[in-house]
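Structure first, sequence second, as always.
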């Protein structure tokens, strides 16, 4: 099936009432037929609903539909995009281990990787996504994950996936891609050799800024990379917290299974059924929205590139951009609705942000309404000047999330703000 068909039909076998719309199963728990049925569910002898912290019928449709859209074998929804990032790391790494991250990432991921997980004894190392050879000097036998974004937020870079994946395969290391900005409509990480795709479903999935959520998707046959791999011994040894279960022996998507049975069980960052239902509604028109977001973003990027007050425009759809070659290779059907541009100073950037009228000053992306953000004073405020530079976030950088308004009106708004 094509993407536009998958987002409408995948994952939902109509319930006993044959409802056309996916129902909202707004419940915390489920009644078991008898004691044996309950025991069989907990022992995984039978699959079914136990408790909404672990699974829910509405969320199950979202997970199956997203997995189908990504071309993966399984998915697990979480309470937020940051929960999805944290669970991806925590599912493979423990105290004494390290992960390797792109040096240019979303600000929340940078603070998580650079500060918060240090308290868990996990080290983060960083590399330039356009210089994959740097990975060779960073990898050791304690490296458990390589984490990148398909289109970085807010520097708007596209990685050299071929180079990154080749080195990861050489060392048998999992590659996780935050695919939030590109979405599965414009980038399919699994076709590029990556192992995990992560999303903040709060962004383009809902499309209207209605709900907070996240999701992790694993590729088909990921067990082949994990089974008997000494980097991931905990997948290959009995889990004493779950009846001695050996995950690599289970005929299910094992990465997301372990997130469900260990991390969601113990840490509890599960989505609400209502939010899952909202994301299902958003998915149904995601391909149509992404086409419009991308078309308008390219028009606005061209306008900004020609404006004398703009020093630089970051958008991989521009032929002049350093990421254009990578985007032509790895990003298809458009380059999403996120772009950024630089002006002379922090003060000039703030002045422009304050003068826009159609653009809303909001720290979010992927909305139907256009959004403007000054990362140095908001999403990346906690970073030092050196960290800002390393993350590709100079003080004069302005990020735009292009919505679904007419691009002519958005360009007029930006023009009056720049000229004011």
């Amino acid at each position: 099936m094509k993407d536009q068909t998958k987002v409408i039909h995948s994952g939902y076998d109509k319930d006993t009432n044959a409802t056309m719309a996916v129902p909202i199963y707004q419940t915390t728990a489920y009644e078991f037929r008898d004691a044996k049925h309950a025991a069989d569910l907990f022992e995984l002898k039978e699959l079914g609903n136990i408790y909404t912290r672990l699974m829910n019928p509405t969320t199950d449709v979202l997970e199956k539909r997203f997995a189908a859209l990504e071309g993966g074998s399984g998915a697990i929804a979480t309470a937020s995009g940051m929960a999805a990032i944290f669970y991806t790391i925590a599912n493979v790494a423990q105290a004494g281990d390290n992960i390797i991250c792109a040096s240019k990432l979303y600000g929340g991921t940078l603070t998580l990787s650079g500060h918060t997980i240090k308290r868990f004894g996990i080290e983060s190392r960083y590399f330039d996504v356009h210089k994959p050879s740097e990975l060779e000097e960073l990898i050791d036998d304690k490296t458990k994950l390589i984490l990148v974004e398909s289109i970085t937020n807010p520097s708007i870079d596209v990685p050299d996936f071929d180079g990154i994946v080749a080195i990861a395969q050489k060392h048998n290391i999992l590659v996780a891609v935050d695919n939030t900005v590109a979405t599965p409509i414009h980038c399919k990480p699994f076709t590029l050799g990556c192992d995990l795709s992560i999303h903040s479903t709060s962004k383009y999935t809902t499309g209207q800024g209605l709900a907070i959520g996240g999701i992790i998707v694993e590729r088909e046959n990921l067990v082949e990379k994990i089974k008997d791999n000494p980097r991931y011994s905990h997948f290959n040894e009995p889990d004493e917290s779950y009846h001695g279960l050996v995950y690599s022996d289970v005929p299910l998507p094992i990465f997301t299974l372990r997130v469900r049975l260990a991390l969601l069980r113990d840490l509890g960052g599960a989505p609400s059924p209502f939010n899952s239902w909202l994301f299902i509604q958003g998915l149904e028109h995601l391909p149509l929205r992404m086409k419009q977001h991308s078309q308008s973003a390219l028009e606005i990027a061209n306008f900004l590139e020609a404006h004398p007050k703009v020093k630089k425009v970051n958008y991989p759809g521009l032929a002049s951009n350093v990421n254009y070659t990578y985007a032509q290779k790895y990003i298809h059907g458009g380059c999403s609705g996120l772009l950024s541009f630089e002006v002379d100073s922090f003060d000039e950037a703030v002045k422009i942000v304050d003068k826009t009228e159609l653009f809303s000053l909001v720290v979010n992306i992927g909305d139907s309404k256009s959004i403007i953000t000054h990362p140095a004073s908001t999403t990346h405020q906690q970073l030092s000047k050196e960290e800002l530079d390393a993350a590709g976030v100079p003080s004069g950088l302005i990020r735009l999330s292009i919505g679904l308004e007419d691009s002519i009106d958005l360009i007029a708004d930006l023009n009056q703000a720049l000229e004011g």
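Margin note: The domain at 286-419 is CATH 3.90.1150.10 (Aspartate Aminotransferase, domain 1).
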